[in-house]
Amino acid sequence: MTGLPSESPYTNDPGLPSSFIAIINSFGHQQFLNQKPEGRVFEWFYSLHLRYGNVVRVGPKFVLFDDLEAVKFILKDSDMPKTPSVAGIRAHYDLPTLFSATDKTFHRQRKRILSPAFSVKYVASLEPLIQSCAKSLIKKIDSLATLSPKPSHSLNSISNQFNNESTPSINLYHLIQCCTLDIIGETAFGGSFNMIEKESHPLPIKIFEEMKRRVMCHTFPYFKTFFKKDPWCDEFISKIVKSRIEQNSKTTKHRIDILQILLNNHDPLKQSSPTSPVNIADGKTMSDFEIQDQIMEFLVAGSDSSAFTVIMAIIMLLYHPEKLRNLRLELESAFPELQNRTKSCEKEDELFLPPHETLKSLKYLNAIIDETLRLFPAALGGIMRQTTEDTIISNHLIPKDTIVSASLWKLHRSKQIWGQDVDEFVPERWFDLNSKIRTDAYYPFGSGSRLCIGINFAMMEIRIILSALVGNFDFFVRDGADLQIVQFITPSLRSKKFEVDITRLRESKKNNDVYNA
């Protein structure tokens, strides 16, 4: 990646690898070695590991680990519980959810309730719903592309990667986020939110504001009365639940999805509220309030991480045009109609929407996704656990009740494990990767009993959206894009924007053929 700022704070730091400097500085630079910048703690942790080694004590009872065996022990072998700090995202400190549960018995019970909605067989049955949302995304982009300026040549030409014209562009980041939220609405709660068609919806910002409020209340409990709650999210979710209950009253054949599974385990006698949680010691049944908060959690977890992975994969491909060409060649080989269509297609109905059964076996597509998740896992700041007894980790005695963090950002960039080109985007590394590395040094979805319940769903969603975007359009990045990554609860681009000009792929090919001729 090019165009690094000359005033980079990393320029004179010999402890940082040059390729890491290239990637991080082009995503926005700050001085982290002596402070913790807002939303960039994961890079501060990285710098601490570079300076002090594999084990870093950053607080009286907070230790970072980045070596393979320590991370494997923390996440897989020991099955340590989550830290109490995760309660910061709960609606009430004493009201756990699947993600925020610290009690292992509760987590096991709640996961057993929800697992049927994430089985391989059931997730496969959701493909038509995911495809319908992906189609809405592609059609929306196609309609906008007809209004967007047509650059003279494509990103297939490495020499002309950026469009400098000051004309309206498409915020691809926003559209992808809308698509993933529509997908979670369609597959989990009975219907799309129609965010793509509307182009504007308060849901993303309202969810972000509510989660931020919860964290602030947890961080500054003495000031929580000043952090007023916006009732919008509660009212929005309440309408979803009431609508489903009304539908169920009219038929004996109920739709099976996450919402229905939650309602099937509803106990009307089990009462809880944000002010007086009662009888929530078990995860076998759910109160009204628990159902509402669990829905809120799925809206966040079921959309943000997938959207971030897709947009980072697109960014990586656009900054590495040769990888983009390789992916398109693989898609054209797997789908001959795509090769023919890009030369002659003129109809909207012929937009490319690939079936997942084929996508899941495409070697290069899956390597791109794996490489994106390696470089940009959802848990950028690490996965934290808490010791329940005095424990030996990496030959260090770690006292009981100490927070230990598996530093994924650093582990996924270990030269000893991944090679000297560890900081580069190299999908090809996955072709002959030692299976032990994939098992023991790669944790984009966590591991052990806390392995992400939605892994199968997320991978299907990412494959379909990414291949549909790459198979239909060519993208032209604008100079000055703010690609700085931040993480609060989930990672995102700080700007919430990735502005591009887009053309149908066939038009780009024609323009490029003329240019090359």
From TrEMBL:
Belongs to the cytochrome P450 family. Keywords: Heme, Iron, Metal-binding, Monooxygenase, Oxidoreductase. Heme binds at C452. The keyword Lyase does not apply. InterPro entries: Cyt_P450, Cyt_P450_CS, Cyt_P450_E_grp-I, Cyt_P450_sf, Cytochrome_P450_monoxygenase. Its cofactor is heme. GO terms for molecular function: heme binding; iron ion binding; monooxygenase activity; oxidoreductase activity, acting on paired donors, with incorporation or reduction of molecular oxygen. Gene3D superfamilies: Cytochrome P450. This is 25513_t:CDS:1.
